[in-house]
Amino acid sequence: MASRRRLHTLLCSFSLSFLLLNGASSVTGSTGHGSGRADAGAGFSVRLIHRDYSPLSPFYDPLSSPSDRLAAAAQRSTSRAGSVRSRTFPNNADHLMQFSIGTPPVQVLAVMDTGSNLVWAHCRPCADCHDPRAPVFDPSASSSFHTLPCGSAQCRSVWKLKTSCTGAGAVDESGTCRYVYGYGDGSTFTAGDLATETFTFDSADGGSMSLLEVVFGCSHNNGSIVDPQLVGLVGLGVGPASLVSQLGPLAQGRFSYCLVPFQERASSSSMSFGSRAVVSEPGAVSTPLVLREDRTLYHVTLGRITVGGEAVSVPARGAPDAGGSSLDVIVDCGTTLTMLPPDVFRGLSAALTRKIGLPPTTDPGKTFLCYETKSRDGFPDITFHFAGGADMVLHPTNAFGEPSPEGLVCLTMLPTADWGVALLGNQAQQNFHIAYDLVKKEITFAPAKCSTYSY
Protein backbone atom coordinates (compact mmCIF):
# COMPACT_ATOMS: atom_id res chain seq x y z
CA MET A 1 0.00 0.00 0.00
CA ALA A 2 1.13 3.57 -0.68
CA SER A 3 0.72 4.46 2.98
CA ARG A 4 3.30 1.82 3.90
CA ARG A 5 5.80 3.25 1.44
CA ARG A 6 5.57 6.89 2.45
CA LEU A 7 8.53 8.51 4.14
CA HIS A 8 8.29 8.33 7.91
CA THR A 9 10.22 10.90 9.93
CA LEU A 10 11.64 9.50 13.15
CA LEU A 11 13.70 11.96 15.14
CA CYS A 12 15.58 9.44 17.23
CA SER A 13 17.71 12.00 18.90
CA PHE A 14 18.47 10.32 22.16
CA SER A 15 18.32 6.60 22.09
CA LEU A 16 17.43 3.98 19.61
CA SER A 17 19.10 1.06 21.37
CA PHE A 18 19.33 -1.88 19.02
CA LEU A 19 19.60 -5.21 20.83
CA LEU A 20 20.19 -8.10 18.49
CA LEU A 21 18.94 -11.56 19.34
CA ASN A 22 21.64 -14.22 19.39
CA GLY A 23 24.42 -11.65 19.59
CA ALA A 24 23.93 -9.98 16.21
CA SER A 25 23.90 -13.30 14.36
CA SER A 26 20.64 -12.45 12.63
CA VAL A 27 22.09 -10.33 9.84
CA THR A 28 21.53 -10.61 6.11
CA GLY A 29 22.98 -8.68 3.21
CA SER A 30 21.64 -8.17 -0.27
CA THR A 31 22.91 -6.79 -3.54
CA GLY A 32 21.60 -6.49 -7.05
CA HIS A 33 22.86 -10.02 -7.68
CA GLY A 34 20.96 -11.70 -4.87
CA SER A 35 21.03 -11.90 -1.10
CA GLY A 36 22.54 -13.96 1.67
CA ARG A 37 24.01 -13.87 5.15
CA ALA A 38 26.48 -11.03 5.66
CA ASP A 39 30.01 -11.84 6.81
CA ALA A 40 30.88 -10.71 10.32
CA GLY A 41 32.84 -7.49 10.08
CA ALA A 42 31.71 -6.83 6.49
CA GLY A 43 30.57 -3.38 7.56
CA PHE A 44 28.04 -1.01 6.06
CA SER A 45 27.45 2.72 5.64
CA VAL A 46 24.47 5.04 5.88
CA ARG A 47 23.65 8.59 4.85
CA LEU A 48 23.37 11.36 7.44
CA ILE A 49 21.20 14.44 6.88
CA HIS A 50 21.50 17.67 8.85
CA ARG A 51 18.15 18.69 10.30
CA ASP A 52 18.51 22.44 9.57
CA TYR A 53 20.91 22.74 6.64
CA SER A 54 19.99 19.86 4.30
CA PRO A 55 17.12 20.22 1.79
CA LEU A 56 16.47 16.49 2.43
CA SER A 57 15.42 17.25 6.01
CA PRO A 58 11.75 17.86 6.90
CA PHE A 59 12.99 20.68 9.17
CA TYR A 60 14.83 22.54 6.40
CA ASP A 61 13.65 26.12 5.95
CA PRO A 62 15.14 27.77 2.84
CA LEU A 63 14.12 31.19 4.19
CA SER A 64 16.06 30.75 7.43
CA SER A 65 19.09 33.05 7.66
CA PRO A 66 22.53 32.10 9.04
CA SER A 67 21.63 34.13 12.15
CA ASP A 68 18.37 32.21 12.59
CA ARG A 69 20.14 28.85 12.31
CA LEU A 70 22.89 29.94 14.68
CA ALA A 71 20.32 31.03 17.26
CA ALA A 72 18.51 27.69 16.97
CA ALA A 73 21.82 25.84 17.31
CA ALA A 74 22.62 27.83 20.45
CA GLN A 75 19.31 26.86 22.03
CA ARG A 76 19.80 23.15 21.26
CA SER A 77 23.46 23.12 22.28
CA THR A 78 22.95 24.84 25.63
CA SER A 79 20.06 22.48 26.36
CA ARG A 80 22.27 19.44 25.70
CA ALA A 81 25.17 20.87 27.68
CA GLY A 82 22.83 21.41 30.61
CA SER A 83 21.60 17.82 30.56
CA VAL A 84 24.74 15.77 29.98
CA ARG A 85 24.70 14.60 33.59
CA SER A 86 21.24 13.13 32.99
CA ARG A 87 19.57 11.61 29.95
CA THR A 88 19.66 14.07 27.08
CA PHE A 89 16.39 15.79 26.17
CA PRO A 90 15.12 14.25 22.90
CA ASN A 91 14.53 17.42 20.89
CA ASN A 92 18.00 18.79 20.30
CA ALA A 93 20.29 16.57 18.21
CA ASP A 94 21.33 17.55 14.70
CA HIS A 95 21.81 14.66 12.27
CA LEU A 96 19.19 12.34 10.80
CA MET A 97 19.92 8.75 9.78
CA GLN A 98 17.97 7.13 6.96
CA PHE A 99 16.99 3.44 7.05
CA SER A 100 13.93 1.19 6.82
CA ILE A 101 11.92 -0.70 9.42
CA GLY A 102 9.57 -3.67 9.16
CA THR A 103 8.40 -6.15 6.50
CA PRO A 104 7.64 -4.78 3.98
CA PRO A 105 10.26 -2.12 4.74
CA VAL A 106 9.10 1.43 5.48
CA GLN A 107 11.68 4.18 5.02
CA VAL A 108 12.35 6.36 8.09
CA LEU A 109 14.59 9.18 9.23
CA ALA A 110 16.00 9.00 12.76
CA VAL A 111 18.33 11.34 14.61
CA MET A 112 21.80 9.85 15.07
CA ASP A 113 23.12 10.60 18.57
CA THR A 114 26.39 9.61 20.23
CA GLY A 115 25.04 11.00 23.51
CA SER A 116 22.40 8.38 24.30
CA ASN A 117 21.72 4.65 24.54
CA LEU A 118 17.95 3.62 24.06
CA VAL A 119 15.82 2.59 20.70
CA TRP A 120 12.23 3.68 20.29
CA ALA A 121 9.77 4.72 17.64
CA HIS A 122 6.18 5.98 17.72
CA CYS A 123 3.82 3.04 17.22
CA ARG A 124 0.10 2.69 16.67
CA PRO A 125 -2.01 2.89 18.73
CA CYS A 126 -0.55 6.15 20.00
CA ALA A 127 -2.08 7.68 23.11
CA ASP A 128 -0.14 10.93 23.04
CA CYS A 129 0.83 11.74 19.46
CA HIS A 130 1.10 15.52 19.24
CA ASP A 131 0.26 15.85 15.56
CA PRO A 132 -2.20 13.48 13.84
CA ARG A 133 -0.40 14.10 10.54
CA ALA A 134 2.96 12.95 11.96
CA PRO A 135 4.13 9.55 10.71
CA VAL A 136 3.63 6.68 13.15
CA PHE A 137 4.85 3.11 12.60
CA ASP A 138 2.04 0.58 12.35
CA PRO A 139 3.31 -2.75 13.75
CA SER A 140 0.15 -4.58 12.60
CA ALA A 141 1.20 -3.94 9.00
CA SER A 142 4.58 -5.69 9.45
CA SER A 143 4.97 -9.47 9.30
CA SER A 144 8.31 -9.34 11.19
CA PHE A 145 7.09 -7.46 14.28
CA HIS A 146 6.92 -9.38 17.60
CA THR A 147 6.55 -8.15 21.17
CA LEU A 148 8.88 -9.55 23.83
CA PRO A 149 7.68 -11.33 27.00
CA CYS A 150 9.06 -10.54 30.44
CA GLY A 151 10.82 -13.89 30.50
CA SER A 152 12.99 -13.05 27.47
CA ALA A 153 16.69 -12.44 27.95
CA GLN A 154 16.40 -9.22 25.95
CA CYS A 155 13.86 -7.70 28.34
CA ARG A 156 16.04 -8.52 31.33
CA SER A 157 19.24 -7.24 29.74
CA VAL A 158 18.16 -3.78 28.62
CA TRP A 159 20.51 -1.37 30.38
CA LYS A 160 18.94 0.82 33.11
CA LEU A 161 15.46 0.45 31.68
CA LYS A 162 12.43 0.44 33.96
CA THR A 163 9.99 -2.26 32.86
CA SER A 164 6.73 -3.85 33.98
CA CYS A 165 8.67 -7.04 34.73
CA THR A 166 10.42 -5.90 37.91
CA GLY A 167 9.45 -4.26 41.18
CA ALA A 168 6.05 -3.91 42.78
CA GLY A 169 3.19 -5.03 40.58
CA ALA A 170 5.45 -6.92 38.18
CA VAL A 171 3.69 -9.12 35.65
CA ASP A 172 4.57 -12.78 35.18
CA GLU A 173 7.19 -13.97 32.70
CA SER A 174 4.65 -14.58 29.95
CA GLY A 175 3.40 -10.97 30.04
CA THR A 176 4.55 -8.35 27.53
CA CYS A 177 7.69 -6.45 28.51
CA ARG A 178 6.58 -2.82 28.84
CA TYR A 179 9.08 -0.02 29.46
CA VAL A 180 9.21 3.59 30.62
CA TYR A 181 12.22 5.75 29.77
CA GLY A 182 12.45 9.28 31.17
CA TYR A 183 14.53 12.30 30.17
CA GLY A 184 15.76 15.23 32.25
CA ASP A 185 13.45 15.76 35.21
CA GLY A 186 11.23 12.84 34.20
CA SER A 187 8.34 14.91 32.80
CA THR A 188 9.48 13.96 29.30
CA PHE A 189 9.38 10.24 28.61
CA THR A 190 8.62 7.43 26.20
CA ALA A 191 6.61 4.36 27.23
CA GLY A 192 5.52 1.28 25.34
CA ASP A 193 6.34 -2.34 24.49
CA LEU A 194 9.75 -3.88 23.88
CA ALA A 195 9.57 -5.69 20.57
CA THR A 196 11.69 -7.15 17.79
CA GLU A 197 11.71 -5.93 14.21
CA THR A 198 13.83 -5.93 11.05
CA PHE A 199 15.94 -2.83 10.36
CA THR A 200 17.40 -2.41 6.86
CA PHE A 201 20.25 -0.08 5.92
CA ASP A 202 21.38 0.85 2.42
CA SER A 203 25.03 -0.04 1.86
CA ALA A 204 27.71 1.81 -0.08
CA ASP A 205 27.80 -0.83 -2.85
CA GLY A 206 24.18 -0.20 -3.78
CA GLY A 207 22.82 -3.18 -1.86
CA SER A 208 21.38 -3.35 1.64
CA MET A 209 22.08 -4.76 5.08
CA SER A 210 19.17 -6.12 7.11
CA LEU A 211 19.38 -6.66 10.87
CA LEU A 212 16.80 -9.22 11.93
CA GLU A 213 14.99 -9.30 15.28
CA VAL A 214 16.33 -5.97 16.50
CA VAL A 215 14.92 -5.09 19.92
CA PHE A 216 13.44 -1.60 20.07
CA GLY A 217 10.89 0.37 22.05
CA CYS A 218 7.52 0.43 20.31
CA SER A 219 6.31 3.61 21.98
CA HIS A 220 2.60 4.22 22.57
CA ASN A 221 2.97 7.22 24.90
CA ASN A 222 5.42 10.11 24.64
CA GLY A 223 4.83 12.59 27.43
CA SER A 224 5.84 16.22 26.90
CA ILE A 225 8.01 15.57 23.84
CA VAL A 226 7.28 18.94 22.35
CA ASP A 227 8.46 18.59 18.75
CA PRO A 228 5.47 17.22 16.81
CA GLN A 229 7.80 15.61 14.27
CA LEU A 230 9.82 13.84 16.95
CA VAL A 231 8.44 10.32 16.54
CA GLY A 232 11.36 8.14 17.45
CA LEU A 233 14.99 8.12 18.63
CA VAL A 234 19.27 5.94 17.15
CA GLY A 235 21.67 5.90 20.14
CA LEU A 236 25.38 5.31 19.57
CA GLY A 237 26.60 5.77 23.12
CA VAL A 238 29.17 3.68 24.98
CA GLY A 239 26.57 1.58 26.80
CA PRO A 240 25.72 -2.06 26.01
CA ALA A 241 22.28 -1.11 24.67
CA SER A 242 23.55 1.20 21.91
CA LEU A 243 23.53 0.31 18.23
CA VAL A 244 27.28 -0.09 17.88
CA SER A 245 27.51 -2.27 21.01
CA GLN A 246 24.65 -4.53 19.96
CA LEU A 247 25.84 -5.01 16.39
CA GLY A 248 28.53 -7.28 17.83
CA PRO A 249 30.85 -8.92 15.27
CA LEU A 250 29.31 -6.97 12.40
CA ALA A 251 30.47 -3.61 13.76
CA GLN A 252 33.54 -4.94 15.65
CA GLY A 253 32.96 -2.16 18.17
CA ARG A 254 33.71 0.48 15.52
CA PHE A 255 31.86 3.27 13.78
CA SER A 256 32.91 6.46 12.03
CA TYR A 257 31.39 9.51 10.40
CA CYS A 258 32.43 12.34 8.11
CA LEU A 259 30.32 15.50 8.44
CA VAL A 260 30.08 17.92 5.52
CA PRO A 261 30.20 21.68 6.25
CA PHE A 262 26.87 23.45 6.67
CA GLN A 263 27.25 25.51 3.49
CA GLU A 264 27.58 22.39 1.29
CA ARG A 265 23.83 21.78 1.30
CA ALA A 266 23.83 19.60 -1.83
CA SER A 267 26.02 16.96 -0.13
CA SER A 268 25.19 14.42 2.56
CA SER A 269 27.37 13.30 5.44
CA SER A 270 28.07 9.60 5.98
CA MET A 271 28.40 7.11 8.82
CA SER A 272 30.08 3.72 8.61
CA PHE A 273 30.23 0.61 10.80
CA GLY A 274 32.68 -2.28 11.13
CA SER A 275 35.36 -2.68 8.45
CA ARG A 276 34.23 0.50 6.71
CA ALA A 277 34.91 2.55 9.86
CA VAL A 278 38.66 2.97 9.29
CA VAL A 279 40.43 6.32 9.13
CA SER A 280 43.10 5.90 6.46
CA GLU A 281 43.58 9.54 5.44
CA PRO A 282 47.00 11.19 5.84
CA GLY A 283 47.56 12.84 9.20
CA ALA A 284 45.41 10.40 11.19
CA VAL A 285 45.99 10.62 14.95
CA SER A 286 44.39 8.87 17.93
CA THR A 287 43.52 9.89 21.48
CA PRO A 288 42.49 7.58 24.33
CA LEU A 289 38.79 7.15 24.98
CA VAL A 290 38.06 7.65 28.68
CA LEU A 291 35.11 5.57 29.90
CA ARG A 292 33.29 7.10 32.84
CA GLU A 293 30.47 6.07 35.13
CA ASP A 294 27.74 7.39 32.83
CA ARG A 295 28.51 4.54 30.35
CA THR A 296 26.97 6.62 27.58
CA LEU A 297 29.18 9.52 26.54
CA TYR A 298 32.53 9.57 24.76
CA HIS A 299 35.10 11.36 26.93
CA VAL A 300 38.58 12.45 25.83
CA THR A 301 41.24 14.53 27.58
CA LEU A 302 42.18 18.00 26.31
CA GLY A 303 45.64 19.10 27.40
CA ARG A 304 45.74 22.61 25.97
CA ILE A 305 44.37 25.02 23.35
CA THR A 306 46.36 27.30 21.07
CA VAL A 307 45.09 30.18 18.91
CA GLY A 308 47.43 30.88 16.02
CA GLY A 309 50.21 29.44 18.16
CA GLU A 310 49.27 31.40 21.31
CA ALA A 311 48.51 29.18 24.31
CA VAL A 312 45.20 29.41 26.16
CA SER A 313 45.15 28.34 29.80
CA VAL A 314 43.25 25.11 30.46
CA PRO A 315 43.01 24.55 34.24
CA ALA A 316 42.85 20.95 35.41
CA ARG A 317 39.20 20.06 35.81
CA GLY A 318 37.08 16.98 35.24
CA ALA A 319 39.99 14.74 34.22
CA PRO A 320 41.61 13.76 37.51
CA ASP A 321 43.14 10.63 36.02
CA ALA A 322 45.07 12.62 33.41
CA GLY A 323 47.23 14.63 35.80
CA GLY A 324 48.46 18.19 35.32
CA SER A 325 46.60 20.79 33.30
CA SER A 326 43.78 19.03 31.46
CA LEU A 327 40.08 19.16 30.72
CA ASP A 328 37.52 16.37 30.32
CA VAL A 329 35.78 16.85 26.94
CA ILE A 330 32.73 15.01 25.62
CA VAL A 331 32.84 14.39 21.86
CA ASP A 332 29.22 14.94 20.86
CA CYS A 333 27.98 14.83 17.28
CA GLY A 334 24.51 15.82 18.49
CA THR A 335 25.62 19.29 19.64
CA THR A 336 26.24 21.97 17.00
CA LEU A 337 28.35 24.31 19.09
CA THR A 338 31.48 23.62 21.10
CA MET A 339 30.89 24.38 24.79
CA LEU A 340 33.72 25.30 27.17
CA PRO A 341 33.92 26.12 30.90
CA PRO A 342 33.62 29.89 31.49
CA ASP A 343 37.26 30.51 32.42
CA VAL A 344 38.57 28.58 29.41
CA PHE A 345 36.14 30.40 27.14
CA ARG A 346 37.29 33.79 28.46
CA GLY A 347 40.92 32.92 27.75
CA LEU A 348 40.05 31.70 24.25
CA SER A 349 38.02 34.85 23.51
CA ALA A 350 40.85 37.12 24.63
CA ALA A 351 43.39 35.28 22.48
CA LEU A 352 41.09 35.44 19.43
CA THR A 353 40.56 39.18 19.82
CA ARG A 354 44.31 39.77 20.00
CA LYS A 355 44.94 37.68 16.88
CA ILE A 356 42.01 39.00 14.82
CA GLY A 357 42.75 42.63 15.66
CA LEU A 358 39.13 43.78 15.61
CA PRO A 359 37.05 45.01 18.55
CA PRO A 360 34.76 42.28 19.89
CA THR A 361 31.00 42.71 19.76
CA THR A 362 27.90 40.51 20.04
CA ASP A 363 25.09 39.34 17.78
CA PRO A 364 21.62 40.99 18.02
CA GLY A 365 20.56 38.31 20.51
CA LYS A 366 23.65 39.02 22.66
CA THR A 367 24.60 35.33 22.69
CA PHE A 368 27.83 35.07 20.69
CA LEU A 369 31.25 36.67 20.53
CA CYS A 370 31.32 38.39 17.14
CA TYR A 371 33.45 40.65 14.96
CA GLU A 372 32.27 43.23 12.43
CA THR A 373 33.53 41.82 9.14
CA LYS A 374 32.09 40.20 6.04
CA SER A 375 34.59 37.36 5.78
CA ARG A 376 36.33 34.73 7.90
CA ASP A 377 39.48 35.14 5.78
CA GLY A 378 42.53 35.82 7.88
CA PHE A 379 41.01 34.47 11.09
CA PRO A 380 43.42 32.23 13.05
CA ASP A 381 43.23 28.46 13.41
CA ILE A 382 42.30 27.10 16.84
CA THR A 383 44.11 23.89 17.80
CA PHE A 384 42.81 21.48 20.42
CA HIS A 385 45.70 19.41 21.74
CA PHE A 386 44.27 16.11 22.99
CA ALA A 387 46.05 13.43 25.01
CA GLY A 388 48.37 11.12 23.09
CA GLY A 389 49.68 13.88 20.83
CA ALA A 390 46.42 14.11 18.85
CA ASP A 391 46.06 17.68 17.59
CA MET A 392 42.78 18.78 15.99
CA VAL A 393 43.30 21.96 13.96
CA LEU A 394 40.04 23.89 13.66
CA HIS A 395 40.03 26.20 10.65
CA PRO A 396 37.79 29.30 10.70
CA THR A 397 34.97 27.33 9.03
CA ASN A 398 35.07 24.93 12.01
CA ALA A 399 34.95 27.65 14.64
CA PHE A 400 33.02 30.59 13.18
CA GLY A 401 29.60 30.94 11.59
CA GLU A 402 28.90 32.19 8.09
CA PRO A 403 28.95 36.00 7.77
CA SER A 404 25.52 37.35 8.72
CA PRO A 405 23.47 39.94 6.78
CA GLU A 406 24.39 42.38 9.55
CA GLY A 407 28.06 42.02 8.63
CA LEU A 408 29.03 39.92 11.64
CA VAL A 409 31.18 36.79 11.93
CA CYS A 410 30.51 35.01 15.22
CA LEU A 411 32.42 32.37 17.16
CA THR A 412 30.40 29.12 17.27
CA MET A 413 31.55 28.29 20.78
CA LEU A 414 29.85 29.24 24.04
CA PRO A 415 30.60 29.07 27.76
CA THR A 416 28.74 26.43 29.73
CA ALA A 417 26.77 27.02 32.90
CA ASP A 418 28.52 23.99 34.43
CA TRP A 419 32.21 24.56 35.14
CA GLY A 420 32.93 20.86 34.81
CA VAL A 421 31.41 20.29 31.35
CA ALA A 422 33.03 20.73 27.93
CA LEU A 423 31.57 19.51 24.64
CA LEU A 424 33.23 19.24 21.22
CA GLY A 425 30.34 20.08 18.88
CA ASN A 426 29.69 18.87 15.37
CA GLN A 427 30.66 22.08 13.56
CA ALA A 428 34.17 21.66 14.94
CA GLN A 429 34.12 18.08 13.62
CA GLN A 430 33.16 19.00 10.03
CA ASN A 431 35.58 17.82 7.32
CA PHE A 432 37.19 15.38 9.73
CA HIS A 433 36.85 11.62 9.35
CA ILE A 434 36.30 10.53 12.97
CA ALA A 435 36.27 6.89 14.10
CA TYR A 436 35.29 5.47 17.49
CA ASP A 437 36.77 2.13 18.56
CA LEU A 438 35.25 0.60 21.70
CA VAL A 439 37.65 -2.35 21.60
CA LYS A 440 40.85 -0.31 21.46
CA LYS A 441 39.21 2.45 23.55
CA GLU A 442 40.34 5.26 21.30
CA ILE A 443 39.05 7.91 18.91
CA THR A 444 40.94 8.43 15.65
CA PHE A 445 40.53 11.42 13.34
CA ALA A 446 42.07 12.99 10.26
CA PRO A 447 41.25 15.95 7.99
CA ALA A 448 39.06 14.89 5.07
CA LYS A 449 36.92 16.28 2.26
CA CYS A 450 33.66 14.79 3.47
CA SER A 451 31.58 15.87 0.47
CA THR A 452 33.59 13.50 -1.74
CA TYR A 453 32.68 10.44 0.35
CA SER A 454 30.27 7.96 -1.16
CA TYR A 455 28.25 6.45 1.67
UniProtKB/TrEMBL annotation:
GO cellular component, one term: extracellular region
Span of the signal peptide: 1-26
PROSITE patterns in UniProt: PEPTIDASE_A1
Cross-referenced Gene3D superfamilies: Acid Proteases (2.40.70.10)
Alphabetized Pfam families for the sequence: TAXi_C, TAXi_N
Molecular-function GO term, any one: aspartic-type endopeptidase activity
InterPro entries per the UniProt record, alphabetical: Aspartic_peptidase_A1, Pepsin-like_plant, PEPTIDASE_A1, Peptidase_aspartic_dom_sf, Plant_Aspart_Prot_A1, TAXi_C, TAXi_N
Active site feature: D113, D332
Example of a GO biological process term: proteolysis
Regions that span the bilayer: none
Keyword list, A-Z: Aspartyl protease, Glycoprotein, Hydrolase, Protease, Signal
Residue ranges annotated for the Peptidase A1 domain, each copy included: 95-446
Family, as annotated: Belongs to the peptidase A1 family.
Protein name, UniProt field: Peptidase A1 domain-containing protein
Provenance organism: Colocasia esculenta (Wild taro)
Organism classification: Eukaryota, Viridiplantae, Streptophyta, Embryophyta, Tracheophyta
